[in-house]
Amino acid sequence: MPEHDRFPVPLSSSAAAAAPSPAARLRALRPDWLADPKVWRTEVLAGLVVALALIPEAISFSIIAGVDPAIGLFASFTMAVTISVVGGRRAMISAATGAVALVIGPLNREHGLGYLVAAVILAGLFQIVLGALGVAKLMRFVPRSVMVGFVNALAVLIFVAQVPEMHDVPWPVYPLIAAGLALMVFFPKVTKVVPAPLVSIVTLTVLTVAAGIAVPTVGDKGALPSSLPVPGLPDVPFTMDTLTTIAPYALAMALVGLMESLMTAKLVDDITDTRSSKTRESIGQGIANIVTGFFGGMGGCAMIGQTMINVKVSGARTRLSTFLAGAFLMVLCIVFGPVVSDIPMAALVAVMVMVSFATFDWHSIAPKTLRRMPAGEIAVMAVTVVVVVATSNLAIGVVVGSLTAMVVFARRVAHLADVTAVVDPDGTTVVYSVTGELFFASSNDLVGRFRYATDPDRVVIDLSAAHIWDASSVAALDAVETKYAQRGKTVEIVGLNRPSAALHGRLTGELTGH
């Protein structure tokens, strides 16, 4: 073996100078956006706006769950920071949410905070398992009409959630909300360097404090935490009874959290024209909930309203904004608590109303669009919106909307199957040509499309233009053959494609007990 193959050859001084240094190699691996000051400014300011919007939301969701406001704020902090690292969708915000609070609130009221925290950890484990099993792939079965209904229902819920903040309040609240909306509409026409929502929040806060205007503030929602959360185990007995108590709540939380997170990820994909890893996001949500549970938080999932603030209003596109939203949240609570407590709720209401308006798909309800859309698609969209608004649960609305879309699709495809008959000139054979997709909906009336009494002794059923999808279709063909056999007539089925022939050959004659 040559000597230079066995031992490294020392670099010459010029070659050594040309070789990249470790720092240079690290810079080569660095994402391009890290070197762009504009991206940094956008991401930092977006994270700050989201953090400000998270505070009253997290406190409100804590009240829904029946826990101290600090529990919801801690959950928002740990969820956002953790998901920024392990999540599959950049720039999406995860924190404490109303859907999760509604699911696990009864557990807290009946058994206490320790059981709630244990359920959050178990829900995280469920989400990791479901993510690994590929539950994210089910998102491809959610049709566009359900997605549009989901978005519109979300916009309605965001607006409805602000109505209590505009009811039975001092009159200055209304002009403050109007001023905040005006700032967010017109300020971007002057400059987009600073997010308009941040300008609106700062301006209205300074105005109310300086003028001494008495209006509801963030501090009225609850006390902010004064220290960071400390990790620990849930205060519950580690027994089978505990497991059976928390398991139903944990599974419900896992499913609701994944549904909302995956739908939000899909929405952000569409807005940003980028793809995300839904499997990684599913597993990441589980990891984030486990971390949140060990820090005593109430758990959570993707927050659609705050994500819209981050992505659509502020223009964030990277994980940095998500991380900073969580980090700023704790800094604002612990370091700047007194200042944050003075922020008027009117400023945050104005931000959320603007988010609601920007989120709603106005094109979907335009008369021109409705005239062109199939009635079934409009019905699916309307059902999704109504169910979500009625239940205040996006996951239930998506499930019901998807089931409605399946029924509409089945009814539509069922009418595409057709049967035509041609009798040979000699009158000894009749050929039935079946066209279309044969499945449970279209094959139900197949048996009644044949003339059993008057047909000749030989019957040919040509399926070259059809496809057999399920056992119902095989059973229908068996019933046709049986009816002809009872009259002493023979049936020959021809033209089956390979998958149809395999299914028919495996099931024919096996679907009835007599």
TrEMBL record:
Main localization, broad class: membrane
Membrane topology annotation: Multi-pass membrane protein
Domain of life the protein comes from: Bacteria
Record keyword Lipid biosynthesis present: no
Cellular compartments per GO CC: membrane
Transmembrane intervals: 44-64, 70-86, 113-133, 145-163, 169-187, 199-219, 246-265, 286-309, 321-340, 347-366, 378-409
Annotated compartments: Membrane
Residue intervals of the STAS domain: 419-497
Name assigned to this protein: Sulfate permease, SulP family
Organism listed in the record: Actinacidiphila glaucinigra
Lineage: Bacteria, Bacillati, Actinomycetota, Actinomycetes, Kitasatosporales
